[in-house]
Every structure is written in structure tokens, then in C-alpha cells.
Amino acid sequence: MTDRTHSVDDVTGHRRMRRLRKADWQRRMVQENRLTVDDLIWPIFVVPGSDIMDPIAAMPGVFRMSIDKAVEAAKEAADLGIPAIATFPNVDMGLRDETGSHILVADNLINQTTAAIKKAVPNVGIITDVALDPFTSHGHDGILREGEIVNDETVDQLVRAAVAQADAGSDIIAPSDMMDGRIGAIRRGLDAAGHQAVGIMSYATKFASCYYGPYREAISTSGLLKGDKKTYYIDPANGTEAIRDAALDVEEGADMLMVKPGLPYLDICWRMKEAFGLPVFAYQVSGEYSQIKAAAANGWIDGERAMLETLLSFKRAGCDGILTYFAVEVARHLARKG
């Protein structure tokens, strides 16, 4: 038999990586990570009123919805198999004050939304954020006193708000404020109120990022913000600090951990999953979504491929799920494909 060994065989020791790439069935057979509808959490924005679908200019394809439309959205999510929705309110400016006190009102916008969705679509999970920024007149996530975001007074208010949200039917409380000690305090508050079954998804590592701009437009806080949030969000340069922050949340009783933003912090996703073994989620934030949409609209990239590739990267980095404004679009794509 003629020896057909090639010099490349000698170089590689007869190991060739392309053997398992040559056909579609082989690539599918050895694929390490897959994106499924079960990985998706859909963030939606809610406004007062009825029959409202208000497009957000900075987020093409995303709307501020009145509660009735949010219920319809929840039904669509359930039909597509999306497990959960994360709700964010855009409350009337007249209800916002220095302390974000309207977050404590039992029938405020976010709690009304939760109750309505749980009544109409009980099989969809509801995740609610207890940060104060949608409720404050200054756009910060905490109570502002003499130019300082006060930690402990803010935590006291977040605990009361978390209980109110759980009373309304929230399945998971997701504190995004980054105040010290708020996870343990909220856990104790929920348990004392009889909400032992309500989970906590900690925004464990929320960075002082430039990627939040379109979100702030969506909840009408971009023009309100006085100063910045660097005194409580994490410096984008600090990975070890981020892991320390997450470790404290784990000790305090967080059930799940979140990294926000997502794509610029894949290393943090991986480190958190390796360090703690808890379910880890990434929030593909508004700026990440909008840059893909803008580039696709200009014909600079294939928008669908970019959407799928970025979401798959979170899975590869160890994430158990992703909060993404692409959720419905992806779910429809997966349904067609499957």
C-alpha cells in the first residue's frame, strides 16, 4: 500500500482538528454549548395607562407597555416557552421624590403589573427589581442625603419594597442597587413575612458601565441623574473586587447571581460560576442590544447571527441563562429551527 502520509501528519502527530468539522451532522454532534428557550429571561418596560405600546427610540423593537399589553406579552412569552419575565416600571414623574418612597406603595405600577400577569399567566415567572432609580427624582438607586447615597437607610427601604413585591406575587426579587448588606437584609425580611419560597437573584456584579444609556431612556431617568453611580457600582477595571462582592452575596443567602452588563464581562461570568457553583445569569443590557440593532440596520453586520453568537457566548462562559431584549426574537427563531 502506498504511504500517503503528508508532512502535515508528522507536524500534528496525526491529530487533525478539522476531522470533526467537515460535515454539519458532525459539528452538531460535538457541539459543546446550545442556546435554548429555557435560557431566556425577557425584560419588559411598563407604563401607566391602557392600550399603550410606546416605542423606545434608542432600542429598536422594544416598547414601553401598559399593564394590559404587558399581560399580552406575558402570554406570548408563555406560548413561546420563555420561563420568566423581568419587569421595569416607568412611573409618573410626579410620583418620584428624593427617597423613592413610591416604591413602598402596595399597588404601585410594578406591583400592579406583577399581580395582573400572575393572574392571567400563572406559569410565567416574574422577576422584580427593588432598586430605587425608577422612583427617585435624582435617578440614583438609593436615597440621596446631602450629596451622598446612604447605604443603610436605602437597605431598610429595599427590604420593605421587596416584601411588597413578594406580596404582589413576585417569584424572584432581583436587587440591582449594589448597596452593602442588602441581600442578607432582604432575605431576612422576606422570611419574616412568610415568603421563604421567594428567591433572590442578586445583581452580584453590576459595573459602572457606559452600556446602560438606552435603559435609562426607557425608564426616563437619563435626564434626572445627578452625578454618577461610581460610589456604589463596581469599577470596570476590577475583577477581583467583583468576585469579592459576589462572595458576600452568596454568604448572605443569594439563590442566583447576575453579571451586568454581559458581553464585556464574560470573564466575570466564568469566574463566578467556577468560584460559587450557583446559577449564574448575565444581563445583556440595553446598550449591547442597541449596538447590534444599529449595526444591523446599517448593514454592517448580520443582526440575527450577531444576536445568536453573543447569546451563545454567555452559555460558553458558564451562564445558566440570559436576560435579553432579544428573548422573543430568539424564541421565535428557535421555534422555527426546531
UniProtKB/TrEMBL annotation:
GO biological process entries: protoporphyrinogen IX biosynthetic process
Keyword terms: Heme biosynthesis, Lyase, Porphyrin biosynthesis
Molecular functions (GO terms): porphobilinogen synthase activity; zinc ion binding
Pfam families the record matches: ALAD
Domain of life (superkingdom): Bacteria
Active site, UniProt feature: K206, K260
SMART domains in the record: ALAD (SM01004)
Gene Ontology CC annotations of this record: cytosol
Catalytic activity: 2 5-aminolevulinate = porphobilinogen + 2 H2O + H(+)
EC number, UniProt record: 4.2.1.24
InterPro entries assigned to the protein according to its UniProt record, in alphabetical order: ALAD, ALAD_AS, Aldolase_TIM
Pathway the protein acts in: Porphyrin-containing compound metabolism; protoporphyrin-IX biosynthesis; coproporphyrinogen-III from 5-aminolevulinate: step 1/4
SUPFAM superfamilies, A to Z: Aldolase (SSF51569)
Quaternary state and interactors: Homooctamer.
Family stated for the protein in its record: Belongs to the ALAD family.
PANTHER family to which the protein is assigned, alphabetical: DELTA-AMINOLEVULINIC ACID DEHYDRATASE
Identification of the protein by name: Delta-aminolevulinic acid dehydratase
Species, as recorded: Rhizobium glycinendophyticum
